[in-house]
Write a structure and sequence with these properties.
Length: 162
Amino acid sequence: MSDPVETLVTPVRLLYDWTATSAQAEFLDAIQEGRLLGEHCPVCQNVYCPPSGSCARCGVETTERLDVADKGTVVTFCIVRVPSQNIEVKLPYCAANIMLDGSNMPFIGLLQEVEAEDVHVGMRVEAVWAPKSEWGPTFENIRYFRPNDEPDIPVESLGDWV
């Protein structure tokens, strides 16, 4: 038998042409101001961040916009130990689904300033923003999330998200 394959390099190039919906454009305008904007579904009462203009569950238009906090609770997470040419984060790192305060649908974010083995469901986190001089209409305004000093949220209170 030959040695097992340990690494396979496959170059991929994907080009996207994307136009923001009016709800997404409002979100990008808000994040450029240092705010996170959500939308409220009038039927199921879910609050989505970022907004898309319609409720994924009910299929109805969502026109009510509201600010949500830049802190929240880790509801699920993944520890990444595999390198990627396009990700300049030290391994291992954590990608977390974060339930932002004021929203009830997770927001995905990079979790830093914590050891991988210390990440857990219920952990309270806050956004670390880039310097205001670097802000634009982009998710990159938030560099990452980090644990804050707030007590954990009990896992049982997170409902269907865990």
